[in-house]
Amino acid sequence: xxxxxxxxxxxxxxxxxxxxxxxxxxxxxxxxxxxxxxxxxxxxxxxxxxxxxxxxxxxxxxxxxxxxxxxxxxxxxxxxxxxxxxxxxxxxxxxxxxxxxxxxxxxxxxxxxxxxxxxxxxxxxxxxxxxxxxxxxxxxxxxxxxxxxxxxxxxxxxxxxxxxxxxxxxxxxxxxxxxxxxxxxxxxxxxxxxxxxxxxxxxxxxxxxxxxxxxx
Amino acid sequence: xxxxxxxxxxxxxxxxxxxxxxxxxxxxxxxxxxxxxxxxxxxxxxxxxxxxxxxxxxxxxxxxxxxxxxxxxxxxxxxxxxxxxxxxxxxxxxxxxxxxxxxxxxxxxxxxxxxxxxxxxxxxxx
Lengths: 216, 126
Description:
The complex is a heterodimer of chains A (216) and B (126).
Chain A: H1 3-11, H2 19-28, H3 41-49, E1 72-76, H4 84-93, E2 99-103, H5 104-109, E3 131-133, H6 140-156, E4 180-181, E5 186-187, H7 194-200
Parallel strand pairs in A: 1-2, 2-3
Antiparallel strand pairs in A: 4-5
Chain B: H1 2-36, H2 68-90, H3 97-120
């Protein structure tokens, strides 16, 4: 529906909506995260769900213990190379549409352990991340901000058309490569196709809120 | 008679139909939605058994040893004994001979179980 017509109608006191808007409103208001914490950021994530910060206000209080029922993966904490295959496997086991929030310096880049040998330098090497939150650890307000950002993203997704999200495209994969333990590093050390997938997913060729792939 | 029956239970029937419709209609709508819009994207990892992110291995049909029943019996002996001995000791002076004999038979049965487990070697820890 034309947005001007919609505005004009609402000025006259008639509320109109589309199936797409209704669907997205339902989806963004009931995002169920996966019960999943990796390090100290998980404590902040737990605090976010508790009474003081109350993530339930945004409809995301139902943390599911199985990926089959989850919509959102909050990668809360340091992803060690030992843990990375399990994280990717859990992501693969989640049904579409699925979203990822990379919470904290470790999850987005390796953080203080970036120069180390055993920590993955950002979970976005293997799975597409929707929202990155910096901080060590980020405060609950930051996680809520990321969540609201994600809600805005969900709200803007279209059901049909060329710029529909990846999960509505039959040619796009739902699973990503699960790395394996190699002699010195994970095999492969990063999913090189991932950035193409994310870039292609947006109409102007640039993913929103994403940086250039890091060269290291 | 029958008309009053219908009059009485008509609201309940209407409420029941509404309740069933309320519960079933989202399921039907979700099913229709998945037929129309959701793409099925099965994969080897997605269809695999959920095992906290780890790959599942071995068979689920393994042998469980049921030897815990021995500990259950020993626990029962001492636990039941303690529960019944305390009131027995408190009321000991006021009991009749019949009651005392009944209690002793009960204790004998429990002690018999204890002797059985002892001879079986259950009380030898590891």
